[in-house]
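Example 3.2
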Amino acid sequence: MTRILEVTDLILRDAHQSLMATRMAMEDMVPACEDLDNAGFWSLECWGGATFDSCIRFLNEDPWERLKTFRKLLPKTKLQMLLRGQNLLGYRHYEDTVVERFVAKAAEHGMDVFRVFDALNDIRNLQTSIKAVKKSGKHAQGTICYTVSPLHTVEAFVDMAQRLKEMGCDSICIKDMAALLKPQPAYDLVKGIKEKCGKDTLVHLHCHSTTGVTLVSYMKAIEAGCDIVDTAISSLSLGPGHNPTESLVEMLEGTGIETRLDMARLLKARNYFKTIRPRYKEFLSDITGVETEIFQSQIPGGMISNMESQLKQQGAGDKLQEVLLEVPRVRKVSGFPPLVTPSSQIVGTQAVFNVLMGPYKVLTGEFADLMLGYYGETIGPKDPEVMEKARVHAKKEAITCRPAELLKPEWEHLRADALSAKANGTDEDVLTFAMFPQVAPKFFATRDQGPKNLGKDPAATPAAAAAPAAATPTKPTGPQKYAVTINGQVHNVTVAAAR
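Structure, written as tokens:
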């Protein structure tokens, strides 16, 4: 008997987020929607993650209008989003009422599948959003952020899956954001979840392709009973992105496992996005091959390139390898958090500071909060000496409760501030302001100018190729001022010259 494997395509969200910094304009996605809607996907991921931020920060586009447009253009297919649990789509925890209102509005405008994750795998940070999704009558997908450490075992992940199912999740997602999931663990993890949670438990696997091993991991997971996998149309795949949809279809030939996908529709979408990709050349990731060193640092590929660029700008480009070696040490000190937004940025930036200034001579506020429990609970214990430095730096004590329990009701306060920032008074605008209070006022002021498309005709910009190369930075000889941005907040730090 033929078994059906379902597929979610990421072309409308994570594919361009991973390869071209989330800059793809809505108008460049609209022409492909008819083929995507008729291709036979289980769902299309099209919202959430960094798209909300990029829409208002760079594209002058209302993210709520983007969602409503996708709903109109994709009537046959479930729409899917990525939600950061209690962080929603921002970078801090929000009070429960804000979380509930956000989920309700997203559901109202057509979202069907909510993939809900927490950067620390602290399921306390998922409970409000999952409950809100269930209340809306939509599909709640509880998510395990896959990572590797001495404390992260298949058994521990399987136990987490069971707890997520007990919370009412309709499916379990294994989210491999850094392409760390090797074939045998993929098989063992899916098999373990099926055995403990029941064979009828829907298991959905999401892997990036950065390390070059995860298409094989998909095959092993499918053999173990995985029900749904994530892929991306091939013209926006591989590198720090995802495995190609068409390759998955071909890989399954002769296995007794098939997808519902229409290859003719896939190829039409592939050809379309192939023409779009060059327009965003200036945003394309420099990582086009395989990065196996990620197995050691666990830093997602796009973050490595950003880190290298920042170090070069400060005349410290030769420090990259030291930073990559420091990241696992910082991760151990902070209790082995998975490295995914925002924990990856927090740990990575602290590693940079440690290399440039000495171990924990300077702490970021976010790292202090991570150490003190304000992002949630980590799987491992934290270094007590660094904990004390964090306490002194933050001038507050460590907590063990669910962080959101410390938050006071904030909806009316957010509404008042949003109105002061020229919001139109709708819940959607209040939520946009809540996510990005520094960026939203500018967006509200320019929204009537309409969306921007940052894509360029490559033939129209020959001058860019002829531009002189940037001067090689010199090694600093005196005190240097560093402006490091984490999650939209700038940290100004002065570093003494090396002696």
